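Course exercise 7: structure representation. Students receive a sequence record and must write out the corresponding structure in token form. The form below is the worked example handed out in class, using DUF5703 family protein (79 residues). Read each field label carefully; the graders check that inputs and outputs are placed in the correct fields and that the protein name is recorded exactly as given.

STUDENT ID: A-19
EXERCISE PROTEIN: DUF5703 family protein
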Amino acid sequence: MERSGPTGTIEGDSADGDWEYRPVQLPGDVSRMTAAVRLAIQAEFGGWELSRVRLYPGGVRKVWLRRRRSSRMLPELSV
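STUDENT ANSWER:
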């Protein structure tokens, strides 16, 4: 499943044991501060934490977020 938002693309969810992962791609025109704020909001309200960040030529960032799997419903990530 692939969705896109104004500042990034969400490619699809995956799970590994007790964790679920969500890759997010941020375009090169998104500043570092804007990316940090958007990810901090997702951490605060969506229960996500930063797992990995890769910076590619052209400034594109691929970010992997993770959160513990839970039986209670957590809000969706909207980037």
